[in-house]
Design goal:
- It is a multi-pass membrane protein.
- It is found in: Membrane.
- Keywords: Membrane, Transmembrane, Transmembrane helix.
- The protein starts with a helix and ends with a helix.
- The mean pLDDT is 88.
- The chain is mostly helical.
- It has one domain.
- The protein is globular, with a radius of gyration of 19 Å.
Length: 287
């Protein structure tokens, strides 16, 4: 039975995880402006793979890679890897806050996809959330906003790939273990981006400081996902889902601090609409 202390611990874990993700997004923008996306992601996924293997393999051995629907597991890993690419490429040309905000249209798309492919019913509240979410994206990416159209397009692709990833996670959770899904996600990204570095070349190599930032980016991502996963053991998803939207707030503050980029009034309104859509989706799921 979960206690109030457990719930507060879970909320704190998600809050810290979103701060780590926002810090990683800010570092990612700096690094993406200087170095090849494939090099950055190869380091990030390789460190994640090493962490998963080091912590899980000694106890579970072959179970960490054993799957029943392997091709779907690989497609899930590929969708997240490609989403990582679109995120870094978008950060090259977009402010951190707006980039992160558009990414959060994904819960609405997951709801719509679940209705189409998993047979789930969408309530009037769900449709209201969808309208709010898409209105928010339109406000952020409106003509005259000054955002790069290519960057907006990349983040819409990112949201689609994130939807594929989350829907497949729901489908595969019925037959696959969490550790196997984590291992293959890290493995697919590591193989894909190391191969890309070999084929395309590493590009400019980072100095000591930026190499440290690349490793820090990988560590922040790994630790953030670990905290996020652990939080759901402490508190119900209906309580934790709204806390995820602190990511947008942290990204706004850090993007302003690092790059002096702050959304305008319609942009803030769009972010609020997207967050409201996500909160409605979380409330609907809890019901």
């Amino acid at each position: 039975m979960q206690t109030e202390g457990d719930a507060l611990k879970g909320v704190a874990m998600v809050a810290v995880a979103t701060l780590l993700f926002a810090a990683g997004d800010t570092m990612g923008k700096h690094l993406a402006l200087l170095y090849a996306t494939t090099l950055i992601l190869a380091a990030r996924y390789a460190l994640n793979l090493a962490f998963v293997a080091a912590t899980m393999a000694p106890r579970h051995r072959g179970a960490i890679w054993r799957t029943r629907r392997t091709w779907l597991v690989l497609v899930r890993g590929l969708s997240l890897a490609l989403a990582s690419v679109t995120m870094l490429l978008a950060l090259r040309v977009m402010p951190v806050a707006e980039t992160v905000a558009i990414m959060y249209i994904t819960p609405v798309l997951v709801m719509l996809a679940s209705a189409r492919f998993l047979g789930e019913r969408i309530s009037p509240i769900g449709w209201l959330g969808a309208i709010l979410g898409f209105s928010g994206v339109l406000l952020i990416a409106r003509p005259g906003s000054g955002l790069d159209p290519g960057g907006v397009g990349l983040m819409l692709v990112n949201a689609f790939l994130g939807t594929v990833y989350h829907v497949l996670t729901r489908v595969l959770s019925r037959t696959e273990t969490t550790m196997a899904l984590m291992f293959h996600t890290a493995l697919v990204g590591t193989v894909l981006f190391l191969a890309a570095v070999v084929v395309l070349g590493p590009g400019p190599l980072p100095g000591v400081l930026d190499l440290g930032l690349i490793l820090a980016l990988a560590a922040l991502s790994t630790l953030g996902h670990l905290l996020l996963t652990s939080a759901y053991r402490e508190a119900p998803a209906s309580l934790l889902a709204p806390v995820n939207y602190l990511h947008i707030a942290f990204a706004t503050v850090l993007g302003w601090a690092a790059f002096a980029q702050i959304p305008d009034a319609p942009g803030f309104t769009g972010m609020a609409l997207i967050a409201s859509a996500g909160l409605l989706a979380a409330w609907r799921a809890s019901r």
